[in-house]
Structures are given as C-alpha cells and as structure tokens.
Amino acid sequence: MTAAALLLVSQTALAKPKVALTQIEGDTTGDVSDAVAEAIEGGELSLIGRKEVNRAVDKLGDLADLTEKDFKKLANELEADAVVLGKLDKVGGTKTLKFRLYVHKKMTKGFTVSFKDPKSEKFRALLHDKMVDKLGAAAGGDERRKKAAEADEEEERPRKKAAADDEEERP
Q1: Alpha-carbon gap, residue 99 to 42, rounded angstroms
Q2: How crowded is residue 46: how many other Cβ atoms within 10 Å of its Cβ?
Q3: What ranges make up the beta strands (E) of the chain?
Q4: Which residues of the chain have pLDDT under 70?
Q5: What is the pTM of this model?
Q6: CA 132 to CA 142: how far, in whole Å?
C-alpha cells in the first residue's frame, strides 16, 4: 500500500459519525436545543449544521409525521450516520426529553433523559455519554466485535509461540 492509501484508510476508519439533530418539539426558547447540540458535539461525534438539517426536514414535511422512509431520505440527503429527534415534556419543575434515533438506515431504540436545568454540566455530560453509547452501539457494534476478535487473536499469537518454544526446549 502506498502512504496516501494508508492515510486515506486510517482517516476513514477514524471518521466521526455525522449526526443530524432536528428541532426539539416543545422547546420554545431553544435553550434545550442549544444544550443538546453542545452535548452531542465533541470528540466522538460531529454535528451537522442546524440550517442544513432544518432545510432538509422542511422539504419532507412535519417532523411528527415523518416515517422511517422519510428518515432514510433525510439521512441520505444530509450524508448523516444518525438522525436524532427530540420531544420535550415539562411536568412541574422537571423536564423530560425523549429521543428517537435513526442510525445507519434503521430506527433504533430511543431513550429518555429527565433534568431540571439544561445548562447544567451534569445534564450535558449524561446526555453526551448516553448519545455516544446509543449511536456507538448501533453504528459500531460490528466494529467493536472485530476489534475484540483482533485483540483476542493478538493475545493468542504470543501464547502459541511461547508454547511452541517450550516444546522445542524439551529433550
């Protein structure tokens, strides 16, 4: 392999999953959307711009009426690895954010997060970890298994060699 091909392969393997965050239903001020965007953006995930996502969603219709086929179109148009939809419910002082996820061309199980202040670091850290876990589990399940298998193979190779060395030394 040439150095350029090797570099291309390594960059592709290390590419961050691109996430499209739609408008959060029930978030009138936009504070929760901002907090979710900041929580998602980071070392492991790359967030697609809001204007681009909103334009693509507007072409398809109302968010509440979108089907799995519509999410596939949205993901393809945005070249997104995942599409995240949120719905905010407020009960008293506690807010509940319900997420629906569309990851790698299929709907996956969403999750719910309850909080009081969207600006709190605890909320953002929890949301970030949960999102990385959900998107990583759905997107990287095969990769994780491959890496684990490779690690197992590498661990076995020295053992086999050591066992072979032991046999050679015996008279």
Answers
A1: 19
A2: 15
A3: 18-25, 46-47, 82-91, 94-103, 106-115
A4: 1-14, 137-171
A5: 0.69
A6: 16
